[in-house]
Fold this sequence. Notes:
This protein is mainly alpha-helical and 215 residues long.
Amino acid sequence: xxxxxxxxxxxxxxxxxxxxxxxxxxxxxxxxxxxxxxxxxxxxxxxxxxxxxxxxxxxxxxxxxxxxxxxxxxxxxxxxxxxxxxxxxxxxxxxxxxxxxxxxxxxxxxxxxxxxxxxxxxxxxxxxxxxxxxxxxxxxxxxxxxxxxxxxxxxxxxxxxxxxxxxxxxxxxxxxxxxxxxxxxxxxxxxxxxxxxxxxxxxxxxxxxxxxxxx
Length: 215
């Protein structure tokens, strides 16, 4: 507890290190090397509160105006399909899947969890034009790294907006349109709806309706 509290780490880093230490001692108990897990006496660290920060229309418009063709496609994959930068980086032609309604993309998500994301027709055409192989070739096992995708997208967005805020934009717009949190969760590739909720900004007009109803 002293080690965690005196580190100067962020809350999320402390949570990660606590989980690592707890995993080690839990493993030692299961193996019979120790009788008691001392981390059972260490209080849980609550996650930091995150607020949705969807990139606004003007930020996306500026990016689409200033970006080259490659980076525009990255911006659209993040803002209109909700892909993470790492998922954008490793798209290949073999990930495109034809279905009854058009084209979908097999996305390689976190933790090796694949999901199928329906594509708007224009984005599907843009991906298909690249032919066989990686859509964004680079030096990371043949494709661009996640960090490089993030750099390219951030470079064309106004200051303060990132590839991740484009993902927040997608989540917010998708929920405002559908009011189906589970569908948005599936599209984003989240394990829990609570995580998806952190990406969705509550519609201001809805807050006004609730306020007026309660007044």
